[in-house]
Design a protein that fits this description.
The complex is a heterodimer. By secondary structure, chain A is mostly beta strands. Chain A is built from no helices and eleven strands. Chain A is globular, with a radius of gyration of 13 Å. The relative contact order of chain B is 0.34. In chain B, the strands form two sheets. In chain B, strands 1, 3, 4, 7, 8 and 9 form a six-stranded mixed β-sheet that branches. A three-stranded antiparallel β-sheet of chain B has the order 2-6-5, with no helix packed on it. Chain B is globular, with a radius of gyration of 13 Å. Chain B has strands at about 10, 20-25, 35-40, 45-50, 65-70, 70-75, 85-95, 100, 105-110. In chain B, a hairpin with a 3-residue loop joins strand 7 (about 85-95) and strand 8. The chains are: A mainly beta, B mainly beta. The interface of A and B includes residues 45 and 46 of A.
């Protein structure tokens, strides 16, 4: 069974940093593209970042460019999101999402349960 | 990277059909076949319902169907059931290999 378990969320101060992790099981992470998607309180889904299966291509939404970095450790079956210079509008539930294939198409076949990030002083 | 435009809410009675529209631009929906739809119950993980405009993943009811014309995609749910009441999001691949979601539509089954 495919499982994605996020961790690393919590309370951060404006300007602070957090590192999210997503532990994958039930499939071989290296064979799939992955993404992070977030949902702010009372808002809709927002794509944040994606990474190719081979780790050679990474993409970021304009809203987080220059502040967030996506990476993966295929040997540990884990996806990461380093979040720096956090702002109040980064407050959201962050979901780890598995693509249907190696390609970055936006077809998220599996999702984690999400980890809450709150940015507040 | 502007969000795709969806109606905030739609409603229908059990057994009826409803359609949710999703309007983008020539840089996303109008350019790519990578359009998908998600069903989302609050507090739960979203579920992929439609991909490639009109394909259903295994296990998704054939009451759900998708289509696209120009810059607008649509999700149709036929034979509405109470359990269909949820939030629905469209999504499209966009230029620069990014992904854009719609603002979401709350479906109420009357």
């Amino acid at each position: 069974e495919v499982q994605l378990v996020e961790s690393g969320g919590g309370l951060a101060q404006p300007g602070g940093s957090l590192r999210l992790s997503c532990a994958a099981s039930g499939f071989t992470l290296r064979n799939y593209a992955m993404s992070w998607v977030r949902q702010a309180p009372g808002k809709g889904l927002e794509w944040v970042s994606g990474i190719s299966d081979s780790d050679t291509q990474t993409y970021l939404a304009d809203s987080v460019k220059g502040r967030f970095t996506i990476s993966r450790d295929n040997s540990r079956n884990t996806l990461f999101m380093q979040m720096n210079s956090l702002r109040a509008d980064d407050t959201a539930v962050y979901y780890c999402a598995k693509e249907m294939s190696y390609a970055l198409t936006g077809y998220y076949q599996a999702w984690g349960q999400g980890t809450l990030v709150t940015v507040s002083s | 990277q502007s969000a795709l435009t969806q109606p905030a809410s739609v409603s229908g009675s059990p057994g009826q059909s409803i359609t949710i529209s999703c309007t983008g631009t020539s840089s996303d929906i109008g350019r790519y076949q990578f359009v998908s739809w998600y069903q989302h119950y609050p507090g739960k993980a979203p579920k992929l319902m439609i991909y490639d405009v009109n394909y259903r993943p295994s296990g998704v009811s054939n009451r759900f169907s998708g289509s696209k014309s120009g810059n607008t995609a649509s999700l149709t749910i036929s034979g509405l059931q109470a359990e269909d009441e949820a939030d629905y999001y469209c999504s499209s691949h966009s230029s620069s290999s990014t992904v854009v979601f719609g603002g979401g539509t709350k479906l109420t089954v009357l």
